[in-house]
Amino acid sequence: MICLPYLHVVSALIYLGGMIFIAGLLIPSARRLLEAQKILQALGQVVRLVHPVLLASLGLLIMTGAAMLTDLKGALGNRYFTQLFATLGPKLFVVFILALLNSYQFFGLGLPLVRSMAEGVEGSVTLPPERMAAMLTLMGRLQACAWTAVALGGAAGALGLAMRHGW
Q1: Cα 154 to Cα 146: distance, rounded to the nearest angstrom
Q2: How far is the C-alpha of 72 from the C-alpha of 95, rounded, in Å?
């Protein structure tokens, strides 16, 4: 299909842009708030909206990449492994690590932040100081995961370009 490469690139841009937004804009901006409770509330509200979009774009990236690879495999026939696997193998490895990292980021870090935000918003309930400290630590891990995802996504993109040009 002619639209698959374009859909793949648009998904990559949405995904990488979202990760840069979380790591480079959202978390540093949230840290400027003086109250920890407000930091978690602001971060939780945005993460609740952004993470599903990023998860969908990552899924679309994997699906469109697999579809394009299937077409390429059919076109190359017996030359498929000898011609592409030196680049394809590392790319598949990077994408696998990226999927694992995002599972941790979305479900291991993002979900507890969103849940803590919901607990803190109900009425005038405030989180205990030790729980607040744990949530702020999660926020730092979320930022580190997002930057790591940007680096891995860039590596996957570079390997994809190398495959496209036959390197």
Answers
A1: 12
A2: 18
Grouping H, G, I as helix, E, B as strand and the rest as coil, residue 137 is: helix
Please give the structure tokens belonging to residue 5. 């490469």
What are the two backbone dihedrals, phi and then psi, of residue 14, each rounded to the nearest 5 degrees? -65, -45
pTM: 0.83
Report the C-alpha gap between 154 and 144 in whole angstroms: 15
Cα 112–chain centre separation:
17
Answer yes or no: are the C-beta atoms of 153 and 12 closer than 8 Å. yes
Residue 71 CB coordination number (10 Å): 11
What residue has token string 């000898």? Answer: 82
Distance CA 78, CA 103 (A): 35
Among 140, 146, 113, 142, which residue's Cα sits nearest to residue 18? 146
The owner of tokens 């952004």 is 50
CB–CB of 12/61 below 8 Å? Answer: yes
- Whether pLDDT at 121 is above 80: no
Query: Could you tell me the end-to-end alpha-carbon distance of the chain, in angstroms, rounded to an integer?
Result: 23
C-alpha 42 chain-centroid distance: 19
Which of 33, 47, 35 lies closest to 114 in space, CA to CA?
47
Model pLDDT for residues 82-95, shown as the tens digit of each residue: 777 888 889 999 99
